[in-house]
Peptide chain release factor 1 (Candidatus Iainarchaeum sp), 220 residues
Amino acid sequence: EAEKEFFSRVSEKANQIFLQHESKLKGLIVAGPGITKNEFLERGMLDYRLKEKILGSIDTSYTDESGIREVMQKSDELLKGAEVTKERAIVNKFLEEISKDGLIAYGDKEVLEAIELGKAKTVMVSESLGWEVVKIECEACGNVEEFIIKDTLTFKPSDLKCSKCSSSKVEELEEIDYIDFIIEKARSTGAEVRVISTETPEGEQFLKSFGGLGAFLRYK
Ligand SMILES: [Zn+2]
């Protein structure tokens, strides 16, 4: 009876605190010494929306502040595992959609176009691309444009020419990482961006077979 009372008190508090931030909440970890935390997960009255976000539980040796420190240390692995699982899932969904010719785009031109037209819902970009974007202004005609530099090792700023008047008198305005460039573009049209690591076979395949850039589309 005391246990039931305790569980309902904890559930109530947790629901009260976490539900108001539910949309921003990425995951919950339940921690504590012994098996009480597992019983809590089974019999507690945690709201179903919170239950869906539980990443796992962690055993601690203490119940005081050092227990909290323990949780911080041990949750790294748990969070990483959850991230990897999510990553594999999204790449697998991408492959599945491709196989049935679904609402998908891949390749840098196609994906960029999809973002700019507002067609992209979720954009996936490999963290290992290593591209850069150089923004220039033409001193002859005033044209401002962006060049995507895929091979940053052999790139020379002096190679850049204005595509409107072909003048090579161009001023470099800024140089940004391609992933930041994509995030910025996506933000302006309401697309979500997922950066995909190459730590999983799926992420590796995404980079090698699909150029490390893909998007789920709202429509075609
Ligand atoms: Zn020009």
In short: The chain has two domains: 2-59, 81-220. Residues 81-220 form a domain with the 60s Ribosomal Protein L30; Chain: A; fold (CATH 3.30.1330.30).
